[in-house]
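Lab manual, section 2.4: Encoding a predicted structure.

Procedure: take the sequence of the chain (198 residues), apply the prediction step described in section 2.3, and record the output as structure tokens. A sample record is shown.
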Amino acid sequence: MIQVVNILLGLWSVHQAWYATTLIQEFNIQVFAIMLFIFTEAVQGVLLIFAPAPKVKVRRPTNFVWVVLLLICVMEAGVNVVKSPLPHSPGFILILLGQILSFWAVISLGRMFGIFSEARGICTSGPYKYLKHPMYVGYAFTYIGLALQTDSPKAWYFLLAAILIQVIRAYQESEALAKLRNKEKIIIQRSMPNEEST
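Recorded output:
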């Protein structure tokens, strides 16, 4: 089931990358930030499609629900950004910073990238050395940057909802990873020779 979800989300990410290219053709907005967005979404799509099967069974359907709600919010906000863009907005700087941070996090995760943190394990390299949830922080920067690119209140509402969903997902991920970390500690302790018996 997780493989099917990964493939569907991967295909969606590739579709988003394609959609972003149409935005560049229709509107002459800050091309570099949008190109980085396209590249990041495409890489995420490929990683999701080719992600290995998870090592543990995941029983959190709410994460899938959050992802679907997030996609709806971001797509709806994106439509509103396109309908009423603000020229010369500083939002592209936040989009650029957010996409760089998100891309760095995705590259650091590599084949461990997926929507279920328990299935992928714990990453301690790249931006994960400095931030607990660098990908979510990057998304928040991107969403705020997108909101600054428009004068549409509707886009702001959807982007704020997207940030709230990411905060909830980060909290759930922290709980799941804490449980995983505790299980790994127990396994390591059991595999260590008992000091009293030596």
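Check your result against the sample. The first helix runs from residue 2 to 26.
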